[in-house]
């Protein structure tokens, strides 16, 4: 899988991922961070990440997978850059600068990562003047969403004044292997690869059997909802990018789950439904909404605890219909939850880990030739992609973190790679009490990212309003009933004798009602004076309270 990202690399499709991270230097010494401070901070922590000093070595003619070696020519100042926004330094300028940086390919003859420090963020809404940003780029062959956490940990601390690591840096560079040595390794791997293929084939048999068994038992089913329609996003892409995104309170994202009280959707289901609603609004405005639901590829991490710091990718994937054909928020969330649950059942039956193991025995030569054919012949125009977009969910740290003493205010955008046939991708990222939905798109396919960002916001607000309306509807219902009744008329419900527990649930239906049978109460109230009526009213709450206590004690 890592090698496939190298094979797919092209000028139009640089295969790296990254972030736009915004920092507030107020917590740093003196309330200011210089570029030199960032360089020193990174240099002191290089030993904490394998990614930062390893480079790729490709085998001649792509006869085998590339190898990782410790770069003998590592130069930190090459990987850390420094730019500043022109005035006024607003959000639009920051997005344009981020998109330009993200569109440029990495040099794969060096460790495949670059960080650009961006100053001049003086008019970005929601952030104080003087903030700076990191625009990060790391090749997808080196990390996935989960192993990227290792890199984040290396360049961040839990306190603004944390000391550098107290263990010595024992890193040693390696010699770059020559073509003969690499071809010798590839020959050896070619000899043992059939054995690997046989082992993986044996491992897949139980998964295939479970999948067939699940279909027969109807644990899951295959439907046309998983077949993606053809959309404007699924064609050849240009080398230009646009980025945008929205941030939402994480509690509000969780509150939207109340739209389906009989189900138990996850936060990821809510995010998929929000994106489905945004695509519905965006394509409806373009008069280009497909009748069938658009689908997303949702990566699933299969990285074990002991593989946390390993480089490369440990992910499988499932197909998630987005419900773009459904305008109603509750119905769309219900649809998304049902389809993702079905996809999870299929993936679990086969085994997500088994799916990743299969990719490890594909000969790279055929993979590289296929990738070149895909890029050069532009078959994306004629061959439908198995999904319309990507939605990847990456959990971020739940507490504030710091880099060079500056507090990370926001993981404002998460950036992702695109390929021909895939001109739009999303990342759902969390940090502290916020959730971010970021968009990376081809500029020629989506020339108006601000409009799509607004569609995301509108979709979220529509779903949140519907969830709040559903949540408050039962509370309003009892309050409106007594208003329609006259004081001298008994309620149809209270006309019959009630149990103590029933009286406790409606202790204050009206002044004419008590914990006693209704018929006696209404006749007595008509004869008694106003003073006696007040005394009776004072006694009623006590009876209701006694009934409530008796009911609760049960």
What does this structure look like?
With 554 residues, the chain is of the alpha+beta class. The protein is built from 15 helices and 14 strands. It has helices spanning 2-7, 35-43, 76-79, 91-103, 148-154, 179-217, 250-255, 267-285, 329-350, 352-359, 364-377, 449-480, 500-505, 518-527, 530-553, and strands spanning 16-24, 54-57, 67-70, 80-84, 113-121, 131-139, 241-249, 295-301, 315-321, 389-394, 402-403, 406-415, 424-431, 434-442. The strands form 3 sheets. Strands 4-5-6-1-12-11 form a 6-stranded mixed β-sheet, with helices on both faces. Helix 8 packs across helix 12. The longest helix has 39 residues, at 179-217. The chain is globular. The two termini are 60 Å apart.
Which key terms come to mind for this protein?
554 residues, 6-stranded mixed sheet, globular
Structural class: alpha+beta
The helix content is 25-40%
Order of helices and strands: HEHEEHEHEEHHEHHEEHHHEEEEEHHHH
Per the principal axes of the C-alpha atoms, what is the gross shape? globular
Counting DSSP E segments of at least 2 residues, the number of strands comes to 14
Largest sheet: 6 strands, mixed
What value does the Rg take, in angstroms?
Answer: 30 Å
Order of strands, widest sheet: 4-5-6-1-12-11
Unreliable residue stretches: 481-554
Terminal Cα separation, in Å?
60 Å
Strand content: 15-25%
Mean pLDDT: 79
Q: Helix count?
A: 15
List the helices and strands and how they pair.
Blueprint: H1 2-7, E1 16-24, H2 35-43, E2 54-57, E3 67-70, H3 76-79, E4 80-84, H4 91-103, E5 113-121, E6 131-139, H5 148-154, H6 179-217, E7 241-249, H7 250-255, H8 267-285, E8 295-301, E9 315-321, H9 329-350, H10 352-359, H11 364-377, E10 389-394, E11 402-403, E12 406-415, E13 424-431, E14 434-442, H12 449-480, H13 500-505, H14 518-527, H15 530-553
Parallel strand pairs: 4-5, 8-10, 10-13
Antiparallel strand pairs: 1-6, 1-12, 2-3, 5-6, 7-14, 8-9, 11-12, 13-14
Helix pairs in contact: 6-9, 6-10, 8-9, 8-12
